[in-house]
Amino acid sequence: MTQHNHQSAPTQFVETNGIRFAYRRFGKTGGVPLVFNQHFRGTMDHWDPAVIDGLARNREVILFNNAGISSSSGRVPTSFREMGANAIAFIRALELAKVDVLGFSIGGMVAQEIAVQAPDLVRRLILVGTGPRGADMTTSKSAEIFAATYDSPEHLWLAVHFSPSPSSQAAGLAFLERKLSRNDRDPDVSEEAAAAQREAIGKYIAPAENIFDYLKNIRQPTLIVQGSNDVVVPTVNSYILQQNLPNAQLIIYPDSAHGSLFQYPKQFVQHVSLFLSEDEAR
Amino acid sequence: MTQHNHQSAPTQFVETNGIRFAYRRFGKTGGVPLVFNQHFRGTMDHWDPAVIDGLARNREVILFNNAGISSSSGRVPTSFREMGANAIAFIRALELAKVDVLGFSIGGMVAQEIAVQAPDLVRRLILVGTGPRGADMTTSKSAEIFAATYDSPEHLWLAVHFSPSPSSQAAGLAFLERKLSRNDRDPDVSEEAAAAQREAIGKYIAPAENIFDYLKNIRQPTLIVQGSNDVVVPTVNSYILQQNLPNAQLIIYPDSAHGSLFQYPKQFVQHVSLFLSEDEAR
Predict the structure, then answer these.
(1) Most distant CA pair in chain A: distance in Å?
(2) A253 beta partners
(3) Do A250 and B252 touch (CB under 8 A)?
(4) By CA distance, what is A256's nearest residue in B?
(5) What would the pLDDT profile of B77-97 be if each residue is shown by its tens digit?
């Protein structure tokens, strides 16, 4: 078969529940595929080719736009519960009975909902730069960062994903170059879609009694990855996830912000590969 | 040369500053050796052969008893600063100019002191189940656990190092079997030595203003490893270390207590190996 990669994989479509989902699927077949859930305002083109291709070497990877995002049809719902249901419908439309699920930022909130709603569908879970329901956002600088203007619009992502240190910013520029190297690109996320995502975040982080209890029901082995100072979803939320999930490993990288997986693509690929290939039994 | 391992490596001695240090040194030569600093009441025989031999496959490992411990002469000082100075004297007596340093529990407190006092001696640092000066011990169950009696005296270590879950306790019994398989064993740590260690802990955890400031001077790449619920040095201290060290990666393992490195020896060896072999530059 053709060996596709992040740059060359064609966008395909699958229709279910009246939604036409755009996706790209490639990598080494024969095992459990890894499904990627993207961050706020992100499309399939917002992943790091170094991460995706690194992981595709040993497993099948599936990128997709959830309902209402970019080249997928439908509307973005205003809750992660509904986004999770849409993601499950997409995975089932591909006739997959078992997948590993990775979610980054709000994609990690969707990934948790997938595990809650369809526990049998999920073998392992990877949660990057994210938080639980009722996440502590008091130190988040998300609003300022997304409202500010930048020399180049793409430099928004340097502020979101990377720390102010020279080495982190240099890693950020290298990431942007990798990210922008694909020609056949997805359309940008609409303002309407971003507004629905924002509304979902607002509901999700509202405090409530015993709000972390649902985490006890996510029994899949889980890998949590975070930057040392995430300015979007504060780092402490990853610690809270680890402490409340029954079977979770946490990795925090140094001198990093929201996009630690893009700052340390080599280590991230190694850590995720180790985690996904660990013996089933602990 | 002879291929020694954790079971067969002979105990050797080196004398400096009037102290005769007992040590064992084996593994793959040619790189930077890894020096191990042991926990409260521990000797060279309290390491896990699966961890030590796993790491010795790709690097030289050096186990030793610090001054006043077991087969080493001298007295145990009542501060980690002095224990750090003794460890540095030992490393220099072996004519080593650069080492990697691993410290577990109070060994991690000694390891930090080594890095503070002899920054040029240390290439990388690994801190397991430990905390900073002024560590938050409010939830520690250390006093009860060490004061209790057990069916078999060795089962003290099941309570210290492993969580109450069946799978963790099973991992604990397997660890004890590995640990006790060496015949030629070090003498137990004396009550006098343990009392000095206790006094050092008391001084170390005393709160003081800006007590974490010294961590900013430990600039070595550092790997922090911890169990999800360390009943001896509470887990939050590893998070505090990560947040205050300039270049530290944190890994927390699931369903584990003080001895996460003994519960997950395979993952620990893989994670440490990755960390020690990462490119110098970040």
Answers:
(1) 52
(2) A227
(3) yes
(4) B247
(5) 999 999 999 999 999 999 999
**With an 8 Å Cβ cutoff, are A252 and B242 in contact?**
yes
- Separation CA A245–CA A239 (nearest Å): 10
Q: Could you give the CA distance from residue B145 to residue A270 in angstroms, rounded to a whole number?
A: 37
Helices (H), chain B: 49-56, 80-93, 106-117, 142-147, 156-161, 166-179, 191-204, 236-244, 260-263, 265-277
Q: Which of A74, A9, A73 is nearest to A36 (CA)?
A: A9
Task: Report CA B109 to chain centroid distance, whole Å.
Answer: 9
Place of tokens 């009542």: B78
Is residue B281 very low, low, confident or very high in pLDDT (cuts 50, 70, 90)?
very low
Which tokens is A156 given? 């928004």
In chain B, the N- to C-terminal Cα span, in Å, equals: 36
Helices vs. strands in chain A: H and E counts, helices first: 10, 8
Q: Which long-range contacts (CB under 8 A, 24 or more apart) does A13-18 make?
A: A14/A90, A14/A93, A14/A94, A15/A93, A16/A89, A16/A90, A16/A92, A16/A93, A17/A86, A17/A89, A18/A74
**Which tokens hold the place of A15?**
């229709």
Which of B282, B209, B216 minimizes the C-alpha distance to B244?
A: B216
Instruction: Collect all residues from A whose CB is shorter than 8 A from any CB in B.
Output: 167, 221, 228, 235, 239, 242-243, 245-255, 267, 270-271, 274, 278, 281-282
ipTM: 0.96
Provide the whole-model pTM: 0.97
